[in-house]
Amino acid sequence: MLNTQALAGARYRESNIDAFEELVRTYDHKLYRVALRLTGNTDEAKDLAQEALLRAYRAFDRFKMGTSFEKWLFRIASNLYIDKLRKYGKYRFESLDEPIATKDGYVEKTLPDWTGNPEEIAQQNELADKIQAALQSLPVNYRMAVVLYDLEGFSYEEISGILECSIGTVRSRIHRGRRLLRKKLAPYVYQGTEVEVG
Amino acid sequence: MIRNMNCEKVRSLLSAYLDRELAYHELRQVELHLMDCESCQEECRSLRATKDLLGMLDTPELPREFWPELKERINSRSMPRAYSGLLVRVLVPAAALLALAILPLTLATHTGASKGMTQAKTDLVEPYIREYIISELDRPFSDETSLGFVATGQAVSMYSSDLLEFYDPPTPSKAVTASNRTGRRTQAEAFQRVMFLSPR
Hints:
- The complex is a heterodimer.
- By secondary structure, chain A is mainly alpha-helical.
- Chain A has helices spanning 4-12, 17-39, 42-58, 69-88, 104-108, 118-137, 140-151, 156-163, 167-184.
- Chain B has two domains: 2-54, no CATH class; 81-196, no CATH class.
């Protein structure tokens, strides 16, 4: 758990970057993952996560002690992302056939059950790319809600705090996001686990 | 009565149902409906399969250069600590005092060349800067130090040029004058607010 008192102290010390790093290490990986799923691009994801941490570092004197640092940090990141989209362009709606910008190193890691069979690897890489492209094609509010819930396991309540909207809105965004994903990924939907209802 | 919940309503709740985020009474209604409705069962299965599909994405590693680069970014922005300290502690307040000292002169003057110059500048530039500063002040993570510089630069260039330049003005209407005077006050308030916020 984050020691916010120590972080508050660190904020005002000279040469405090190492202390800051140590204290927010719990969240950096998660923040980067969310940024990657939102942007679909490793360079943009790194930039977004770094910028969010930089702002958190600089704005820490305005963090309310006793509230969730994680929620605060992800709120900074999501606001930053939305600002960036507003500033640099409209939401992108890419075709599923369009390639997305991923680096080779990144694609190689998209194999939950690696078997060594090149054909299967290629198929699974392709599927991961299709899923990421489908995520990219969602309206940004749906994408953020789905990523925060389905990929990072935040609760609806936490997401409502991060995205600064009601729980009902979170519920609706997740549901609409999934329905759009289902439509876009229709040929692959049952390649996941077959499940029983209830 | 419980079974009266229609398919459309049930389907709108299925994601929250899968996520165990329904209130108890909603949960009961959805469960009861699903027992008898095959098409909603299929809807539910396909949504869960979509959710499961997302689980096939990997969990990428944090790039090795992430923290070294971030530290560099932090350092590069706070590097001119001594320099910015000087600016923030000495030059900005000095400029602020200069601007605030000149401000009443321009506000009090209703005729003359310098007033016309100010109004011409105000009409063209001031509203944009003023709105920008005010809107930025309301943003939780705006950089007040930068805003301080912007406000100072704006005030100094506007009001000092008032004293230095000569300009034969078109006759301003009363309405414009009033609006500009209000604008100046707003800017002065925004400016003071920027200056009193703790700079980093």
